[in-house]
């Protein structure tokens, strides 16, 4: 079957027929920052976007009206970011905050558009065999790396083999380990063979295409095909990118330069915004949005972020399911949502965004959404902690949304006898100690999802390297494998719903909400777009003054 990216898409064969049956709505983001997802119909996407800001649609309309005119070109913008970059190598970057930046430098064979559809990037089109085991990509004409060299089939082969672990036995992107062979059919055609059919795998081909053999060099001097090229990076300060004049998409980008500026904590961010030194700043708290609304455009979109009080299942007393369940009962999620997000988030009780609507199951009745202090105390007493216990909550200091959430949770846990204290830390320390080292009691962050239901569910397998909460369930592991093997998407959806219930019943963590993404935009900025994945696309942004 063939999928072309120019003109109207034609989706054929069992994989894409199935995908279009499962509607997925929009979103974006993560505090650790990793992702993966499923496709969506244009109708369902349009429906979901009715709830986003009218300012956003106005910007997009004006972009379309003015496209091709000279007055959109030039200038520079500053984007405020809340954390430092963990790696400039696109195949090794872990933090979502890094990946949202690298989206502007690197492209894969395909990428998501603002509606959640897979569109061509380095590839102009592709086919998938009827058995789902062979992907054949046709390379787009005229795509160049930032060093001026044309992208070749050798570059694609090298990049895919690197992420799949075919070069050294170490997959850099876990889902790409399904690749068993990458073959060059001719100068413009690359064939990829996988070990088993997977309706979600096409979304993993967003993996960056880099020059053949560049490998570790990418971490010091990144070279991609995206709309912006790398200029400089200073730790704890930020990264500067310049317009790629040879970008394959004619007319883009508009601005000459973009700086992603690290702004530290919420107070610093607010001062920078009020001083006008930042043009774009995402992930506002409700209180920040209220302060800024007169002087900035404040636009909002639903997300696929999953915010939770993530619990380390391997440390005492959190290794007792009754203690974890008590914490779930203790949380008043409605109060958290109202205080931090102005009531705009969607409350959840497992690690699946409601925006993935055909896979999602509402489990909020399990623990309730307003808190049950008596039930929490009962479970703690049954577990031998009638007098409560002490617990540290690790939070990246730069994420004001999570810090405010933590402040509310500390007060709520006091009501059941749990003495929780917040341990603020830099993002690099959080990644090493919490996410990679698993040396923590609890943490508040968001996990990002792409357009597939399997990405977030994947991380809670016992053996997953992403399973930073040390969740263990033989039943969960078994059902996850069934979900991956299922080709019928109704059957697949039922398995994913079972996984959510297991994670909820076992209180793997205390899931809170999928928050809305409130973004501050300078009034001099237009063309900004929200995506259903965690990115900051500056290619369509332009200056109106």
Give a verbal description of the structure.
The chain is of the alpha+beta class and 545 residues long. Helices cover 28% and strands 20% of the residues. It has helices spanning 13-21, 42-49, 54-66, 96-102, 153-164, 266-275, 286-292, 321-330, 333-341, 373-382, 400-414, 427-436, 454-458, 474-485, 489-505; strands at residues 2-4, 76-81, 110-112, 118-120, 123-128, 134-139, 179-186, 189-194, 228-234, 238-243, 257-262, 280-281, 297-301, 306-311, 346-347, 390-396, 419-425, 442-447, 510-514, 517-521, 525-526, 542-543. The chain is globular and about 70 Å long. It starts with a strand and ends with a strand. The model is unreliable at 4-69 (pLDDT under 50).
- The residue-averaged pLDDT reads 87
The 3D shape can be described as: globular
Strand content: 15-25%
Oligomeric state: single chain
Which stretches of 5+ consecutive residues score pLDDT under 50?
A: 4-69
Q: Tally of extended strands? A: 22
Radius of gyration: 23 Å
Q: Please outline the major beta sheet.
A: 6 strands, mixed
Considering DSSP H and I runs of 4 or more, what fraction of the residues is helical? Answer: 25-40%
Q: What's the number of helices? A: 15
Distance between the termini: 47 Å
